[in-house]
Structure formats: C-alpha cells, structure tokens
Amino acid sequence: xxxxxxxxxxxxxxxxxxxxxxxxxxxxxxxxxxxxxxxxxxxxxxxxxxxxxxxxxxxxxxxxxxxxxxxxxxxxxxxxxxxxxxxxxxxxxxxxxxxxxxxxxxxxxxxxxxxxxxxxxxxxxxxxxxxxxxxxxxxxxxxxxxxxxxxxxxxxxxxxxxxxxxxxxxxxxxxxxxxxxxxxxxxxxxxxxxxxxxxxxxxxxxxxxxxxxxxxxxxxxxxxxxxxxxxxxxxxxxxxxxxxxxxxxxxxxxxxxxxxxxxxxxxxxxxxxxxxxxxxxxxxxxxxxxxxxxxxxxxxxxxxxxxxxxxxxxxxxxxxxxxxxxxxxxx
Length: 331
Fold this sequence. Notes:
Largest sheet: none
Number of helices: 16
C-alpha cells in the first residue's frame, strides 16, 4: 500500500511539474520536455518518481512556487496564508533545506518590498504556526524534548558532523551543486552538465543585455528562485560540517524552474530560438530510458541498504507497542 501511494504521488508530481512550468512559461514544448526530464532523471530529488527513495518535498515545493506565482499576479490574502502553510510543510519534510527556507522567508519581504512587504505577509506566519502547532503541543506535553534534542546535537555533535576547512568548503560546495545539477539533467555526466550550465549562463547574459532585460527584471518568481539558490549556496558554504545530498533536496526542483524560465525567455528571441530546441532535444535524448519500452527491464532495483535500515527501526518501534508514536516521530 505504501508503494502504491508513492507511485500515485509520483505520477501526480510529474503532472504538477508540467502544470507549474506551463503556468510559468506558457510554452508547451519547454514544459513537456523538462517534465519528461524530471520524470526520467536518475536523480531521486525530483520526488516520489523514484520509489526506492521517495520524498514529499518536491511536490510541496511545486505547490509553493505556484502560490508564489499567484501572489505576484493577485492580491488575495489567502495566498499568503497558503504560502505559509505549504512553506512549512516543505520545512517539515526537508531538514537543513527547510532551515535555509525559513531564513529566506524572514528576509525576502525586505528584498521584494513591492510584492511582499505588506500586512498580508503576516498570514505567512499564521500558516507556519498552524503547521508547527502539533509540534508545539508535543513540546509542552513532553518537557521540550525536541528543543533539548536540538541543543544536545549542537553542543555534542555526532562524529559524522566533522568540521571542514573554509578552503575545502569553497571548493566542495559549488562542486556538489554542479554534481546535483548534472545528476538532474545530464545523467551524472559532470562535463556535459558543466557545458549545459555555461550555455544557460551565456543565454542569460545575452538576454540581460538585450530586449528581454525588462521582462527578466520584472519576473518575480524567477528572481526569487535565483536569489534563493545563491543564498542557499552561501549558507551551506558557511556551514562548517559535511553537507549530505539530502540537505539539498529542494534544489533540483528550483533549478528546473530556473532552467525553464531562461529557455522561455530565449524562445521569444528569434536569434536564440534554435538553441532552445537543441537544448531540449539533447536533454530528452540524454535522459531517455530504453527500459521503459517493451521488453521492460530493471537496471537497479533500489536502495536495499536504506530499506533494511529503515525496516529495522520501524520493527523496533512497533515492537515496543507504543501508545503514542509522536515521541518517536518528533525525537
């Protein structure tokens, strides 16, 4: 039943990805092509598409970006409430990535004053409170167990929280982002991923020095996500310990939207149109999985080690026959 649930959620995530890109780019080819890439990519961070390592964060993030799009074009206060609720569902499912998102939510009203610095933004915090309420009640009932656990982790970090020098972090973090970008779009080929990234940057630079500059400058969602990407990179570079890939679980979805926006801007320029088609066709071919066609085959059945570890934990907890599972869920 769990597998069926995440399989259905995987299909919904792909459809939601397409609908989001269609709403943001108004370009059928770009939306379909990049949704196909997300569905066939080897990177698990695109969501429950990969049954062996499902994640709810990408789906919530897709909804969050769509609400952000609606906030930019409509002044309905309910969008701010929904934005807070979904944002903290992302926080609740994404650990360190969520911590960066919280910081960003606090500073963005001062960055995007025209759109976000208004009284309706207080509803974002109301939405956050509604999501956090079960944990707050749990904290009060259980003598602040979560807070004590967090403080203990900070004051007595576990062995895998090894300190990394600033020089190594300056080299490692951008390389990690590039590797994740390559896993997302170019099937782990870092050289091809680097070439794709350089091509997209060159397209963006050409657009910024052309007629598209004003459109890009006014595109709230695009600027919002670009800023977030750079701020997350800065944050994790400052962060002194190891950064595991799952800390960055939301980054691929954000990168997908940024790529879609750059290509949509370029598609409107006659001189750049062919480059958009070349990039989309190349990505689709590169990520095409022949084993999806008859006769079907499985290249990799899943992460057996992770499954076995998780099963042992679940078996242990159920063996205690607890009356209240929240103690295990929150601690």
